[in-house]
Amino acid sequence: MTTQAPTSAVSALDEAFSIDHLLSDDELRWRDSARQFAVERIAPVIEQDFEDKHFRREFVAELGTLGFLGMHLKDPGCAGAGAVAYGLVCHELEAADSGWRTFVSVQGSLAMSAISKFGSDEQKGEWLPPMARGERIGCFALTEPQGGSDPAAMTTTARRDGDDWVLDGAKRWIGLAALADVAVVWAATEEGVRGFVVPTSTPGFTATAIDGKLSMRASVQCDVLLDGVRVPGSAMLPGAHGLSGPFSCLNEARYGIVWGAMGAARSCLEVSIDRARTREVFGRPIGATQLIQQKLADMLVEYEKGMLLALHLGRLKEAGRLTPTQISVGKLNSVREALAIAREARTILGGDGITNEFPVMRHMANLESVRTYEGTDEIHTLVLGRALTGQAAF
Question: Average pLDDT over the chain, rounded to whole?
Fold first, then answer.
C-alpha cells in the first residue's frame, strides 16, 4: 500500500507555496534525491512495516549510497553538505515516515556528530567512513530510565581501572541500539560527564528492543544495560567535557526535527487537499464548503510559517550564527503545528482518516514521539522563558 498523495494535491500545494526559488541548485538536487527515495522505496511499504513493527535494515546501505548519513559533516567519507540541504533531506524522509528521518538523525546528527566533534583522529578514521556508507550503525546512549529531561542526574558511571574504563548503568529509549555496531555512551566520572565510543560487541553491553509501542513502529528504540563494560582508555572522546558535549549533538538532531516535522505535516496536508477535491457530500465536493476551505487555509498558513522558519534557521546555521534558543523555537513550533495539522487532516478525512488507507494517524502517532524526544514542549518552553526573562524556571 502506498501513502503518497496524488500529483494534483502536490501541485496545488507547490503553487500556493513555492519555496524552490529560495533554494540553490545543489539544495534542490539533495531534496529531489531524498524525495525520490521516500516515494519509491519507503512509501510503498511503510504502512505494512508500521503494522508489522518492521525496520528495513536493507535501506541503511541505500541511504549511505545516497550520501544522507552524516551528510552535514566535513570529515572524510562524509558529503559535507550545507545545513539547508540536510534539512530538506530530513523533510522529505519524514514526509514518508518519522522513523526514517529519526534513523538519519540518530546515525548522523547524534552518533557520527559526537565522534566528529569530539573524537580522536583514530576514532574518526575507524568509524566515520563506514558509518557514512551505511556499513556500520551507531547509537547515542544518553537518556536514562528515570527520565530524559535532566541528564545532569545520570546514574550511569565510568570508573578507571588501570588503563581501562569500566561502565555500569542503564539507558532507555536509545534509538538503534539493538542494531548498532557502536554506541556513544555518556557516563558520570570523577571528572564530570564524559563520552565513550563503545563497540556493542563488548561484553556486558546488552540492548533490548522496546516492544508495545503505538508510535514509531517501523523503527527501533531500546533499553541498554551496561554491566561492567570494559573499554580501553582510548575509547573516551577526548574533546567532550561535561554536558556541553551531548547537548551540542542534541542540537544537531533538533535542527533536523525542525524540517522533518514539517514533512509529516506536508504529507497530511496533501492528502487533505486531495480528499477535499474528490469526496462528495450533499451533491458537491467537500472542498466546496467554507468550513473545509478554512481548515485547509489554516493548515497551509502554519505549514508555510514552519517551512520559512526552518529555512531561516538553516541559513543562520550555515552562517555560524544559530543559537540553541533559536533551535528551541523551531523544534517547539514545528512539532506542535505538525500535530495540529495532522489532527485537522483527520477531521477532513472523516472516519476513513483513522485507517491505514491514509498516512495521517501514523504521522500523528509518530509525532507524539517526536514531540517528546530531543526536548519536550515543556523543556523548550522553559528554554525560551529563560532567554526572555533571564530567570531559569526548570
Answer: 96
Rounded Cα gap, residues 112 and 101, in angstroms? 15
Q: Which residues are catalytic?
A: 374
pTM of this structure: 0.94
Pair 13, 270: CB distance under 8 Å: yes
From 165, 159, 106, select the one nearest 131 (Cα to Cα).
Answer: 106
234: which strand partners? none
- DSSP state at residue 171: E
Residues 347-367, mean pLDDT to the nearest whole number: 97
Q: At what angle do helices 7-16 and 244-278 cross, to 10 degrees?
A: 110
- DSSP type of residue 390: S
Which tens digit of pLDDT belongs to each residue from 27-60?
999 999 999 999 999 999 999 999 999 999 999 9
CB 202 within 8 A of CB 133: no
What is the pLDDT averaged over residues 361-388? 96
Pairing of strands 138-141, 280-281: unpaired
80: left (phi over 0), alpha (psi -120 to 50) or beta: left
Q: Output phi, psi for 93, to 5 deg.
A: -65, -40
How many CA atoms does the CB half-sphere of 85 hold within 13 Å?
A: 21
CA distance 7 to 101: 23
Residues in the chain: 394
**CA dist., res. 187 & res. 27, Å (int):** 38
Dist CA 41 CA 265 (whole Å): 20
Residue 63 grid cell: 541511504
User: What is the dihedral sign for C-alpha 233, 238, 243, 248?
Assistant: negative
